[in-house]
Amino acid sequence: MQIIKKQSGAAFKLKKGQKLKVIDAHGEQVSDMVLFNAKDQREKLSSGKTLDFEESILISSGNFLWSNRSNKMAEILEDTNGRNDFLLAPCSPETFKVMYNYDAYHPSCFENLYTSLEKFEIEPDDIPTAFNIFMNVQFDKNGKISVEPPLSKAGDYVLFEAKIDLIVGLTACSAEDSNNGSFKPIHYEILD
Ligand SMILES: [Zn+2]
Fold first, then answer.
1. Which end of the chain has the lower number of beta carbons within 10 A, N or C?
2. CA-to-CA distance for 57 and 68, rounded, in angstroms?
3. Where is the DUF1989 domain (predicted)?
4. How many A from CA of 146 to the centre of ligand 1?
């Protein structure tokens, strides 16, 4: 069991066939995930392809995460919470500036992703729209979206299986609104 401390991130390899369990240990905590093909990092997670091929805004058990080259990167085998999406980009310094008029330094998923992925020679501009695990984004009939407290309870998890050799970036999200105002760690486990 690995622990991503609050408002931080991690990056690691996941071999084809290995499973990744992402756990919200304390409840109401979002985790952003990005994926890259370990053999060619120009191939990466695509929100657009995933929504196209899965024909759903919400992505859960039985759905696949697809790449920009239209290949399956991972399958969701189990999801005890059932609320994950691609509706917002990883929180970044600009998120806090543009959306919340907050000009001082603020930790963010974007920074935590690119600093964690640096060791794999992945740069800030390479970071795709992340898969928002445990995130509770609601939308009304006019398309207006709002970020609501996560529905996840302590111990909820999502279990992924890698369909190719992957580099994974994973965070414990740093945005107040996404995590009902408090920051918690995210746990993860790699299973063979
Ligand atoms: Zn975030």
1. C
2. 17
3. 3-167
4. 15
